[in-house]
Design a protein that fits this description.
The protein contains 16 helices and no strands. 39% of the residues are buried. By secondary structure, it is mainly alpha-helical. Helix 2 runs parallel beside helix 7 and helix 7 packs antiparallel against helix 14. The protein has one domain.
């Protein structure tokens, strides 16, 4: 299958750390994802959004809880830009954000490879609205690491106006500056309580509760994705305490806070697998930072076992998903692209 074959090839290449191939492969993945055609679980769902919300007036669009997303659809339809270009825009924002983190890594190529099987396939190839927000949150992560409070808040707020779920990261604002100590973490947690209450009182939170908490709906594969994040969080603190983990100095504060959030997701999982899964996707770029730096860490025993473990787990998980999931085969197979033009008769459909 093409998806698994791509990942296997990327894993093989990552062991030689081909820095010169990073931009080529990154651009190739962008083209593969951005120009898919009738591929992805939410293709028709976003097409319906394009038709319904895109036809809203300007004032009706900005009254929505996610006004920036609606304005994108509004102007796209007003300018008579065919629907599939929405995927190109989303993928562009997503890859731009990912690149900002990747270029600051010791191995940008390895970082990129680790994001492909879960984050790239599930988000910009399907959930394009959240993928756009994730791309912006990556810029916010850079601002967090550089201790730029205003920039962090501005970018995060913008992402939240595209996908409400991104608003949760505004609760990290008190931790952007200053050293992260137990006292400051406790203080930030106390300050977060009214912020969390405000988020839960929003219309978006009410909709999420109705859809994902009270309905009993479960996200396919969520338990495995969230468990992997939780295990990563615990492993991070174990390796860090023993002094074995090599951290990117630029991102040490981000990986510390991100690992705490990964562990907290385990508590949310029994309440709603969908909500835990949705927030978990935002943390995968942080998880990949930890995984990518294992090869630069110093382990006294079983070094290659530890370094290779993320790739092995992802290969097994992705292999099982792509080969045995009816959901995957329904959404992603066959892969089709419109990069060489729309098939006959389809151009008018998506206008």
């Amino acid at each position: 299958m093409i998806y698994f074959a791509i990942f296997v090839l990327l894993v093989i290449l990552s062991y030689s750390d081909p820095r010169r191939l990073y931009f080529i492969v990154s651009f190739a993945l962008f083209l593969f994802i951005a120009f898919r055609f009738e591929t992805g679980c939410d293709w028709w769902g976003y097409f319906n959004q394009y038709q319904s919300q895109g036809s809203l007036s300007f004032y009706a669009a900005i009254e929505d809880p996610e006004p920036i997303w609606n304005l994108i659809l509004h102007f796209q339809m007003a300018l008579d830009i065919p629907y599939p270009w929405l995927n190109v825009l989303s993928a562009g924002v997503f890859f731009s954000g990912i690149h900002q983190i990747a270029k600051r890594q010791s191995s940008p190529f390895t970082y990129l490879v680790l994001l492909f099987p879960i984050l790239m396939v599930n988000m910009p190839m399907s959930a394009v609205k959240q993928a756009t927000a994730i791309g912006l949150i990556c810029f916010a992560f850079i601002a967090f690491s550089e201790r730029k409070v205003f920039r962090f808040v501005a970018i995060t707020a913008t992402a939240a106006l595209i996908h409400n779920s991104a608003a949760i990261f505004l609760l990290l604002s008190p931790l952007v500056v200053g050293e992260i100590t137990q006292r400051r973490l406790l203080f930030a947690a106390l300050l977060a309580l009214p912020g969390m209450a405000a988020l839960l009182a929003t219309e978006g939170a009410e909709v999420a509760t109705t859809r994902y908490v009270d309905s009993g709906v479960d996200a396919a594969g969520a338990i495995y994705r969230v468990l992997l994040l939780g295990i990563t969080g615990f492993a991070y603190f174990y390796l860090r305490k023993r002094g074995w983990l090599a951290e990117e100095r630029h991102f040490s504060r981000l990986t510390f806070i991100g690992s705490i959030m990964m562990i907290v997701l385990l508590a949310i999982l029994p309440l709603s697998s969908v909500i835990a899964d949705r927030f978990g996707y935002y943390l995968i770029p942080i998880q990949a930072i930890i995984f990518a730096n294992l090869r630069f860490s110093h382990f006294p025993h079983f070094r290659w076992v530890i370094v290779s473990s993320p790739f092995v787990v992802l290969l097994i998980t992705f292999g099982v998903w792509t080969n045995y999931s009816g959901h995957f085969n329904l959404c992603y197979v066959p892969y089709k692209s419109w990069i060489l033009g729309f098939p006959d008769g389809y151009y008018s459909i998506y206008r």
